[in-house]
Amino acid sequence: MGFRLGPGGSIARTAAAPWRWSLVAVVLVTGVLLGWFAARGLFGSPVTSTLNDLAIDPRPVITSLQQIGELHTVKMNMKDVLHVATDRPAEGWLREIPGSDTVSKWATHNDALVVAVGSVDAGIDLKRISANDVSPVRLPDGTQGLRVRLPQPTVYTPNITVTVEKSDSGLLWKDENLIPKAEAEASRRFLDAADKDGIRQHAEENALDQLHKMHSLLGQKNIEFYF
Length: 227
Hints:
Radius of gyration: 40 Å
Oligomer: single chain
Shape: elongated
Helix content: 25-40%
Largest sheet: 4 strands, antiparallel
Order of helices and strands: EEHHEHEEEEEHHE
C-alpha cells in the first residue's frame, strides 16, 4: 500500500505496484546468497591449494641427489704455448757495485719454452643440497611436484700436462721451480679462457638437462630444478 494526494489536498491510499515487491524479494534473496558464499570463502581471491597442502615427502629426493655428489657437467679442452723466465737481482754487498744488478740477472737468468695441454671442468656439488633447497609446488600441468634449488656451479682446478720444448739455466743459479711456475701460469690462463667462454653458464644448462633426464628415466617427472 502507498499514499497519494487526493482532490483538495486530501490524502488517499494507493496499492503498491506488484513489481516493487518482486524487486525487494530479489534483493533480499541475493543478499542471503552472497552472505552464504562469502562465509564459505567462495568469493574474493581464487581458491588455490597452498604449498603446505601438497603431500610429497622430499627426503628421498634429497638423499638421492646427495648420493650423486659432485656432478661434472662440462669439460673444456685447452692448449697453450708459454715462455717463462726468471732471474735474481744482486744481493748483499754486491748491490753496492755499479751495474751489479745487470750482471746478476744475466748470470742467474733461467727460461723455458713449454707446451701446456689440459682441460677445465665445471659442475655442481649436489652434496650441498638440504631441505631448505626443496619446496612443494604446483606444476604447470596441475600435478603436485617438488622444486629443487641447485647450488651454484664450481669451476675445478685445471688438469694440465706440461712438455718442455726448450730450457736454459743461469750460469750461477738454476731455478728448480721454473716448470711448476709454468704450470701455474698455464692454469691461470686456462681458467681465464674458460670464464670468457661461459663455462659456468654451460655447467648450469647441462646440469638442468642431465638431472631432468635422469629423474625422467626413474619415473620422477614431477621434479623441477632451478638455480
